Amino acid sequence: MAKQFKVDVSDEEMRAFELIVIDPDAWVDNAVRNKIRKCLIYVTEAVAKNRLGLLDPADLAEIEADLIAAGDVMKEPKNYSEDVKKKIAKLTKMKTRVVRDAEEEAGLGG
User: What pTM was estimated for this model as a whole?
Assistant: First the structure.
């Protein structure tokens, strides 16, 4: 399932943005995609170092099979194929920042 973002800006903010940026829609799309790319790299590297036991053994075996199939076995995590990075992110048992913040606020310390 794809996620779509919506950003509301005032008329004045948009006017200033358009004075500097030729294609605001393309700029926003690029900014979001670049941040997502960096997040995928971070998660991939965290899993590759097996920090905090982020994968079940079965999931780890599945990832290793994908790495072999993609020819990524000997590569640094940041150079894994996009499909492998996405699968790692999907299978990772890491709590999102939103969940961690909510647990902390509730005093669960999770």
Answer: 0.60
